[in-house]
Amino acid sequence: MTNKNTPDDKNKRDFLQVSTYALGAVGAASFVWPLINQMNPAADTLALASTEVDLEQLEEGQAITVTWRGKPVFIRHRTKEEIASAKDQLLDGLRDPQTDDERVQNEKYIVLVGVCTHLGCVPLGQKSGDIKGEYGGWFCPCHGSHYDHSGRIRKGPAPTNLEIPQYSFLSDTLIKIG
Known about the structure:
Blueprint (H helix, E strand, L loop, with lengths): L6 H31 L5 H5 L3 E4 L8 E6 L2 E7 L2 H9 L11 H4 L5 E5 L24 E3 L4 E3 L5 E3 L11 E3 L4 E4 L1
Antiparallel strand pairs: 1-9, 2-3, 3-4, 5-6, 6-7, 8-9
């Protein structure tokens, strides 16, 4: 008995082979997609990626703390004296020299991540009765870091100034952090 491959048999074989490969590729993709997709950030994490804060009720001299990406963010409506003190500071001798203008977008408001750059403690200075340190800004009692009205390190073991989060003013009194 001779095995004769007709052109129709060859076409059927090619069709079955291509169909099998295509079905295998779809199966592999449907298996791999959930593994890749689970690496995306969770919905609750994405929701914290940015936050809007209305500063309209914040009076001069007051401060609020909001949470952004699980960290406290200090926002202070600075007084004229605090602004003048922050602007008049000579940069000579500062561990992390930055002018006040480099640290604020609107001189009335300072926005800082409220985490000490030494060991990650949360400095005092947001509440009216808190110890604000020798320079009137924030004070980390854990290891004695003192920050001025612009969040610059002035004394203590902290290596850098308080971090400034990415933020922008959407209006005169509305900011978006993140």
